[in-house]
Design a protein that fits this description.
This protein has helices at about 15-25, 35-40, 65-80, 120-140, 150-160; strands at about 5, 45-50, 55-65, 85, 95-100, 105-110, 120. By secondary structure, the protein is of the alpha+beta class. The protein is elongated and about 55 Å long.
C-alpha cells in the first residue's frame, strides 16, 4: 500500500471548552450542530497523510469532519474534472492531486519533492472511504446522538462515492 490516511482520536479535543460545558449542561444538542461548526471547531485530532514514503501531514491538528469532507470532495472532483485540491482553512498549505490515466499524483504547495508521489486511483478512493467510514464510526460511537445529525447522513452519502 502506497497511501495511508489516518487519525488518532484525542478525547481532550472533541469540543472547545465552552461548547463542552454547554453540551454537558444540555444547552447544546449534538444532533443539531451545524456542518460549519463541526467542520471548524469540533473533534480536532492528529491526522496523518502519507503517499509513497512522503509525508504530507504528520500529526497535523485538524478538525476531523472538515478533513473527511475535503477528502471525499477530492474523490468527486477527480472523477469529474481530473484534478482536485485538499486545502486547509487553518493555513495556506494545499495538497494538489491530479489524475493521470488510473494514477493519482500528489503535489504539496510547500516542500515538494523532485518526484510527485502517486498511487492507483482505486487505492485513493478506497483509503478515503475507509478514513471517512472510520471517522463516522468514531463520532457516532463516542456520541450516539450524532446518528441523528444530518451531517452524518451527508458523510455517509459522500463515503459511498
Amino acid at each position: 500500500m502506497l497511501l495511508k490516511i489516518g487519525f488518532t482520536s484525542n478525547n481532550g479535543c472533541d469540543f472547545p471548552a465552552a461548547v463542552e460545558r454547554a453540551w454537558k449542561s444540555g444547552i447544546i444538542n449534538l444532533s443539531t450542530v451545524s456542518a460549519t461548526d463541526l467542520r471548524y471547531g469540533y473533534f480536532i485530532y492528529p491526522v496523518d497523510f502519507k503517499v509513497g514514503g512522503q509525508e504530507f501531514l504528520t500529526a497535523a491538528q485538524l478538525p476531523l469532519v472538515d478533513i473527511m469532507y475535503t477528502l471525499s470532495l477530492s474523490v468527486r472532483d477527480l472523477g469529474s474534472n481530473g484534478s482536485a485540491e485538499i486545502d486547509f482553512t487553518e493555513n495556506s498549505y494545499v495538497i494538489r492531486i491530479k489524475l493521470q490515466d488510473s494514477r493519482v499524483k500528489f503535489t504539496p504547495s510547500h516542500g515538494a519533492g523532485a518526484v510527485a508521489p502517486e498511487c492507483d486511483l482505486a487505492e485513493y478512493v478506497s483509503e478515503v472511504q475507509e478514513f471517512v467510514t472510520s471517522g463516522i464510526s468514531h463520532l457516532v460511537g463516542g456520541y450516539p446522538v450524532f446518528e441523528d445529525n444530518r451531517v452524518i447522513d451527508e458523510m455517509k452519502e459522500l463515503a459511498e462515492m
